[in-house]
Amino acid sequence: MKRFLLLLGVLTTFSFSIQAQGLNNLWQLGYASYDGLPYGGTNIDFSTGTANVYYQNRAMEFGRTHANITDSNGQLLFYSNGYYIADRTGDTLQNGTGLNPSTYTSWYPDGLHIQQANLILPKPASSNLFYLFHSTIDNDFISLPAAKYLYLTTIDMTLNGGFGGVVTKNKILLEDQLNVGKITSVKHANGRDWWVFCHKANSSSFYRFLVSPDGVSSPVIQNIGINRPPDVGQAVFSPNGNYFAYYDTNHRLEIMEFDRCSGLLSNPTLVVINDSTFGGGVAFSPNSN
After folding, report:
1. Residue 207 is part of a domain; what is its CATH number?
2. What's the CA gap between 79 and 86, in Å, rounded?
3. Quick check: 159 and 165 in contact, CB under 8 A?
4. Is residue 143 part of a domain?
5. In the chain, is it the N or the C terminus that has fewer CB atoms within a 10 Å radius of its CB?
6. What is the C-alpha separation between 167 and 197, in angstroms, rounded?
7. How many beta carbons lie within 10 A of that of residue 36, not counting itself?
8. Mapping DSSP to helix (H, G, I), strand (E, B) and coil, where does residue 197 land?
9. Is the pTM of this model over 0.85?
10. pLDDT at residue 126 in the model
């Protein structure tokens, strides 16, 4: 397997080819904006090819859970912190409250504190429908912690005069004992569809979904790699979509090859990082090497 350049502690990573479409050229970070304080919402805009960093006055706070999406011109459409969804103006999206029903969610109205618990994808072959995949720490597993459900919420941008609205919310795609967060995606080799992945706790099992013009498929399970207890960390695909990495706070980094046609992972390699510091992020270099 090729050598990889990896960066630990990265806040956010994005799926293969979505950034080339302009849909993820805007990164939103930071807290809400408070009068008298010199900090708050921060945006990093890559639409020109270089990073333009600027302050944004916004009501929504981001703990760790965050997702936003723009149109092909880089204009913000909507965003979420796992507690609710906001439209491009910062107001609550029509029917955008009540995500992720659980006791844990009620503790964090300022946004969930889970890495990669939100993922937004455009529905293939649709110009106005978007899918929000999301999860929380559910009541049955608060002490672990783990998720019981993977949810799907659908947004239609033709609603509410073009500001968008939720048409279905908290649809259960999967019920199991799942590792929290780490919902990640990669573009199918056909250039249209998407693969979405999450991991089953206390196992070596990955669930994958195919997102196509027909909607979101039933989950398919693949057993590969090491057994993972409930953990915290990050999972990410390489920019070219050919590799997958999973890192947890036990300092275990697993790298696999990925077939974008079949959706199958293969050839896992485990790297144990001997370090006393706490880390939770992983990323590939821009050239995927």
Report:
1. 2.130.10
2. 5
3. yes
4. yes
5. N
6. 23
7. 4
8. strand
9. yes
10. 97
- The reply to whether 195 falls in a domain is yes
The token pair at 55 is: 């302050």
Q: Which long-range contacts (CB under 8 A, 24 or more apart) does 44-53 make?
A: 45/74, 46/19, 47/22, 47/73, 47/74
pLDDT, tens digit, for every residue of 156-208? 999 999 999 999 999 999 999 999 999 999 999 999 999 999 999 999 999 99
Per DSSP, helices labelled H in 90-173 are 103-107
Residue with tokens 């991991």: 199
Position 3 in a domain = no
User: Which tokens go with 50?
Assistant: 């270089």
* Contacts with 78 (C-beta within 8 Å, 6 or more apart), sequence order: 68, 69, 85, 86, 87, 88, 93, 96, 120, 130, 155, 164
Distance CA(235)–CA(237), nearest Å, equals: 7
Number of domains in the chain: 1
Give the ranges where the chain is alpha helix by DSSP (H): 103-107
Looking at 157-242, which runs of residues are DSSP E strands? Answer: 165-178, 184-187, 194-199, 203-212, 215-216, 220-228, 233-237
Task: Name the residue type at position 268.
Answer: P
Instruction: Give 233-285 pLDDT, tens digit per residue.
Output: 999 999 999 999 999 888 899 999 999 999 999 999 999 988 777 777 899 99
Range of the domain at 165: 26-272
Residues 155/161/163/169 CA torsion (nearest 10 deg): -30
φ, ψ of residue 139 to 5 degrees: the values are -55, -35
Residue 82 is given by DSSP the state S
3, burial (CB in 10 Å: exposed 0-12, middle 13-18, buried 19+): exposed
In a domain, 83, yes or no: yes
Token pair belonging to 79: 């965003």
Q: Which pair of structure tokens corresponds to residue 215?
A: 């909607």
